[in-house]
Amino acid sequence: MEKHLLDIGEKAVRAGLDLGADQVEVYTSNTRSFSIEVENNAIKSADERRDIGIGVRSVVGKKIGFAYVTSAEATDVDDCVARSVRIARAAIDDPDFQSLPSLTSTYPTVDGLFDNAVDVFSSEEAADMIIRVVDSSKEVLQKVDYAIAAGIQTSTSKSAIVNSLGIAASGRKTLISIYSYPIIKEGEDQTASYDYQVSRSLSEIDPEHVGQSAAELTMQFLNPRVVEGGDMPVIFAPLGASTVLGRGLGGAVNAEEVQYGRSYISDALGEEIASHLLEVTDNGILPGGIGSRSYDAEGVPSRTTPIISSGVLRSLLHSSYTANKDGVENTGNASRPSYSGLPSISTSNFMVAPGKGELTDLVSEIDRGILCRNTADRPNMTTGELSAMVMEGFYIEKGEVQYPVKNTLIGINMKELLKRVFLVGKDIRTTFTMTTPSFAIERATITSG
């Protein structure tokens, strides 16, 4: 299949050049996915999708045109190429555009991106795994009233990218994820929580662990309380850390955001912006990584890029456009949701290096503070101001977790948060956005009520 996609791309590139384009890029993909969701022991939804198509970017001078088609038929591809060239001719010059990327190094071999067991995973096997997740949650929740939602999703994607400057790459990936979301009621109190796993390999998925963990977490969040506010330490467990750093820092080191002055770390490259305990890299070649790939969405070879080391901001994340604009090396961080979109910039595997101790060890260091398991809030990317609701968290006193919290906010600027990291654990977890352990900051403003 990858050879077929490459052939489509090569023919489309030649067609675009024949129509007068100076440069042409063609991205093709073929994806199959299915998902099952259950609720209260009944199937809520089951969905299978297949999607194939191409996206064509044409360059005429400094003008760019883009078109896509949800087909790989020759006549549809030819029409898509022609539309892309026509749009480029009619477009306005982009003075900052220099060129599509060319191939300057070999593509790395990245292991663990495709698992045949996921590729051939059947709906019957998926249903069995969902039952195992739900049953494991039920075992923990026998003494309370409960409802359980659970789901599974798998996908296989094959893609290729070709351009007129020598880029020609193809590959395939698989992905599988499962979750359990119990809701429980005890007296007048009702609460919910969840847990999940995501991997490129079926063998790394443990449905019993997910079901049990989700139910145990839900039980822990019964009877939450407000806390007395003030400035105090905060521990971010991996899910909370992945939101605060994955979105809050990963978005800030996006070179496009910096170039447009929309990042709170603009003009900070080469400066000390964080605690020496915080080591952050973007690793596009991590074996089996959720964000791993041999090449980015423009066909540039993937790599590992140091972001913060010894507290210093070492690099931004670039696509060919931003790298050319700044006159720096491309980090290979172009991404796109599918063939239907233009490249943007995103992290690959955004990783915080582990420190020492488990989460309980970090808690034992806190006299009075907050443990934030999860938050959905990211900072204002321009100012860095963060006001994060603790969706799931606990109050800590004298080195021990006391009770769950409710209506509690964490207030801090990201510049201060990065500098105030004083503990980093070794309890690494992979989320959809990053790989990180828990970490603690010396203080933030806590409000609750």
What is the assembly state of the chains in this entry? single chain
Approximate helicity band = 10-25%
**Shape type:** globular
Number of domains: 3
Q: Please outline the major beta sheet.
A: 8 strands, mixed
Global mean pLDDT: 96
Which radius of gyration do the C-alpha atoms yield? 24 Å
Distance between the termini: 57 Å
- Count of beta strands: 23
How many helical stretches? 10
- Amount of beta strand: 35-45%
Could you describe the 3D structure shown?
By secondary structure, the chain is an alpha+beta fold. The protein folds into 3 domains: 2-90, PmbA/TldD fold (2-Layer Sandwich); 116-157 and 173-220, PmbA/TldD superfamily (PmbA/TldD fold); 230-448, no CATH class. 23% of the residues lie in helices and 37% in strands. The chain has 10 helices and 23 strands. Strand 4 and strand 5 form a beta hairpin. The protein is globular, with a radius of gyration of 24 Å. The N and C termini lie far apart (57 Å).
